Amino acid sequence: MHISLEKKSIIDVYDTPIIQQTSFWSQVKKKQGLKSLAFDYKVRNRDLYLNVDGYSCTQADFLMFVQQLNANDCVVYVPYGPEVEPSEENQGAFLEELSESLRSYLPKGCIGIRYDLNWASHWIDESFFDEKGEWLGAPEKRFQEFKINFCTQNKNLQKSNSDILPADTIMVDLIPSEHDILAAMKPKTRYNIGLAYRKGIDVRIGTIEDLKIWYDLYLETAKRDGLHINEFYYFHSVFATQMEDSVKVKLLVAYLDDIPLAAMFLLISNHRATYLYGASSSQMRNYMPTYALQWKAMQIAKSQGCIEYDMFGVSPNADSSHPMHGLHRFKSGFGGSVFHQLGCWDYPFDPESFSLFQASEVNAKGYYL
User: Fold this and answer.
1) Averaged over 146-156, what is the pLDDT?
2) Dihedral, CA atoms, 271, 272, 273, 274, nearest 10 degrees?
3) Which residues, in sequence order, are CB contacts of 251 under 8 Å at separation 6+?
4) Rounded to an integer, what distance in angstroms lies between the CA atom of residue 152 and that of residue 139?
5) For residue 333, how many C-alpha atoms fall within 13 Å in the half-sphere facing its CB?
6) What total number of domains does the chain contain?
7) Checking DSSP bridges between strand 308-310 and strand 272-280, what pairing results, if any?
8) What is the pTM of this model?
9) Mean pLDDT in the chain?
10) How far is CA 224 from the centre of its chain?
11) Which domain holds residue 23?
12) Which of 42, 120, 164, 354 could hold 112 in an S-S bridge, CB 3.0 to 4.6 Å?
């Protein structure tokens, strides 16, 4: 396999529905202190896909971020990329060749690459589901690594100990009419949406001046649920980075009269809308403001030409012991299909230093890059 690689300007990154692979996201992360790199690549289709002959090629790009670990060492992180998904049998060889091709372009102290792959999990055939239709999850790391590395030369790809971005999400189809989208939801969810409006919940589009309202709700949510707390500037950088004809950022706030009860960030890129961040008050939850918020977000997304709505992160199944079980129960009520992804995979350049980095992550609270 041969991959032609060329560094490119961040502003020239191709439009994509994947927020984390846009020039917009690069600008957001620049405000947060992270350096980004972008690359064009070209590879023959017969190297990417099975049962393909000839000399036709795929040309695409990807965005990566530099995470400095100390004065000397760094790792580079590819969030939900590369977007082009090879056939399962070729994925390991593709990632290996891409990683080796990138070596000379990366900072001198780079100890490895982390790919946060939004490619479909290899373990979603019927044998990985129980009698209730619940996904049993991927096998142990060593079995995953054996399959991914099967056609590689160095057997160097490692499954990360945890994922950074959600590896499981729910995608709602926005192509049908609003009536049919509602009809596809669970009856309880549909009822709660109607209840919210009957009780007087009003969802408004906020401005940058409303970020304080968002942040107060966010702090309340984070403390209630034991979540890692990001600083105010983290969300300000997302809202303040508006790019013409690219990604649209909308802050939605659900009010009862003038009391804010819930809020969310809706990001629209290409044909996809993404529910990126959400927060809610502990008060008056029986008014169902979060249900009205999600339905309004879907209506806005549909009016903007989106054909899909990414609920962005759920537990892999309905297991009540999973810390994200509540999110799974809430989000699955809006219909849509669960999508299981491969998640984070590492390609170390310096195995010893990278092992120390992986060990340091065990007690980390986690973050979204």
Assistant:
1) 96
2) -160
3) 205, 206, 207, 210, 211, 214, 239, 263, 264, 265, 266
4) 20
5) 18
6) 2
7) parallel
8) 0.93
9) 93
10) 23
11) 3-167+341-360
12) 354
